[in-house]
Write a structure and sequence with these properties.
Elements lengths: L1 E5 L2 E4 L4 E8 L7 E7 L3 E7 L6 E3 L7 E6 L4 E6 L8 E8 L5 E3 L3 E6 L1
Parallel strand pairs: 2-11
Antiparallel strand pairs: 1-3, 3-8, 4-5, 4-9, 5-6, 7-8, 9-10, 9-11
Length: 114
């Protein structure tokens, strides 16, 4: 099983980044996909159902981020706009299903300068 994130980097406040997570080794379309971040604390950033029809976001997102997925390419994305310094964190994707299987990537660092 592999989950590999990319797209992080250094950006100024108000800027944008697009994160990607490519997955392999498990039936991607059967798993709910999530983005978490670990900064001062661990937070759920965004979540998307297996069919991509339903999404959920952490309260701090407030319309700035969008999660999406491609079940053909086995990829999940996080579009982040209007970034703030407090968004600085290690962002990682996770996969989970109703049978308790959980998989995690190693993350990509996002740093937002003031």
């Amino acid at each position: 099983v592999h989950l590999v994130e990319s797209g992080g980097g250094l950006v100024q406040a108000g800027g944008s980044l697009n994160l990607s997570c490519v997955c392999s080794g498990f039936p991607f379309a059967d798993f709910r996909m999530n983005w978490y971040r670990r900064g001062p604390r661990k937070e759920m950033v965004a979540s998307i159902t297996q069919d991509g029809r339903s999404t959920d976001y952490g309260d701090f997102v407030k319309g700035r981020f969008t999660i999406s997925r491609d079940n053909v390419k086995n990829m999940v994305y996080l579009e982040m706009n209007n970034l703030k310094p407090e968004d600085t964190a290690l962002y990682y994707c996770t996969a989970g299903n109703q049978f308790g299987y959980r998989y995690y990537g190693e993350g990509t660092q996002v740093t937002v300068s003031a």
